[in-house]
Amino acid sequence: MRIDLFELERSQSIWENTVEYNLTESGLHPFTMRELLDPHEIEALVDLPLGYGHTEGEPALREAIAARYPGAGADNVLVTTGSSEANMLAVMSLLDNGDEAIIITPNFMQLPGLAKALGAKVHQVPLRLSGSRWMLDLDEVARAITPNTRLISVCNPNNPTGGVLSADERSGLALLATRHGIALHADEIYRGAELAGPETETLFAAAPAGVITGGTAKAMALAGLRIGWIVSSKDIIEKAMQRQDYTTIGSNALGQRIALFALQPEKRARIVARNRRLLARNLDQLSRWVAVRSAIFSWVPPQAGAMAFLRYDLPVSSDDFCRRLRETQSVFAVAGSWFGMEGHLRLGIGGEPDHFRDALQRIDRFLQDEFATA
Known about the structure:
single chain, alpha/beta, 13 helices, Aspartate Aminotransferase, domain 2, 7-stranded mixed beta sheet, globular, 4-stranded antiparallel beta sheet
């Protein structure tokens, strides 16, 4: 099977553990087991049998996930090995060779590669910056629909912009999907990582063939659990289960149990509160940093997610900018070109504040050395 190079993930796999400052992570600083769990929960894990367990996900875990999506039950949930597997199974369940997919970009860029590898034709509809927010042109989405369109996919909250669809944009997408009998997929991995205000409204049940993917990696700061999920109708979940039999068979029993603990309302509230405090401190640092360097950088501050998408005005490609920054200052940032957005950088803002401050100082040193400006 021919498949596009996944530039973001391949670059992270090669370099993220070799640098002093990894700003490519879009999630929050990870919790340790001791920080997350009480002694009784840790003791319970010691006695957990490390067998296959429930390959579709522990019943109690599926119920806990379903509780986050009004109208969903445990039968609407499949637990996966990370949200990447969830996305993959969703695409495999919804697209065949010759089908067409509309994908709202920029996004994680996994979906376009998978869809094309399955023989589907991909139409990318870009978000466009208008004033102080990234906007979706629903008329452009409508024009991209053909008789062969089987899927509309969106990442909300968005990676890499940190933007959130408006109520009108969400309802507009749902209406288009419903009117044309198209599946509506929403990657909601950043839901719960809002910097302020209420949690982003889910698109589950917004359209008859709605498919939501999510997981513990980003908003819950538990990437190492490798736990994701699909929430959808029972028939789509059944198709995804059949395809999971060919991929991982099921996710790990230890990760499932820890995820169950983490999703309990009191513990999840504590996770969200800690993450918001961390994001607020780092966003404040970055806001002041960008303000002083407004001749070089411009941005729209994120609404959700531990990332900031900066546009820069320098005579260098984003790929070269990030390579030279990594080689000279041991700071690893995400090139906008990896999202099809040249002239931009994505910086992770979910790390420890002192570490993030030091990384920004390294970027200043790079700007001075390379461009005689900072």
